[in-house]
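Hey, I was hoping to borrow your eyes for a little while. I've dropped the whole record in just underneath, so have a look:

——
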Amino acid sequence: ERRRPETISIEEVLGCYVPNQKIILYARGISWFARRYGIEENLLRMVVLLHEIGHWITHLLPKPGASSWPTEFFIETSEEVKEGWAQLITYWVVDEIGGKIKEIFEKLNNYQSYPYKRYKDFENIEEEKIIDSLKILRQLNKPATIEDWKRIVE
């Protein structure tokens, strides 16, 4: 649907993960956002791609002893959990790289809605404990909530 980018939430204008199918980056939206906020377009595209790969990792990436997240439960899982995971994975990568890509991630995060900021609740928890929590979330046999995730890592 064609609309002015200003009328679309940032989450709808940059990219999306379609479970079991593909990752889509919206070239026009990324270009528009980069121009509007004075961000280097290629680095913004990398941040968006990392975020969408974060969704794929959370949903499907195999881990020894852990199956993928059943798609119906993944889809129904709270936005805080899905976006929190994708942002946390993105944060880990950009924090390791540092520099401009980390600055762009942080600037972009300023414009994102609350579910995208929930990763901050988990960024100082030991990575191994966080990664182990994914196995447990995948095995809940129900859509996960932010309360489930917090309880698991306590």
Summary: The CA atoms of residues 16 and 78 lie 16 Å apart. The radius of gyration is 15 Å. The chain is about 65% helix and 5% strand. The first strand starts at residue 15 and ends at 18.
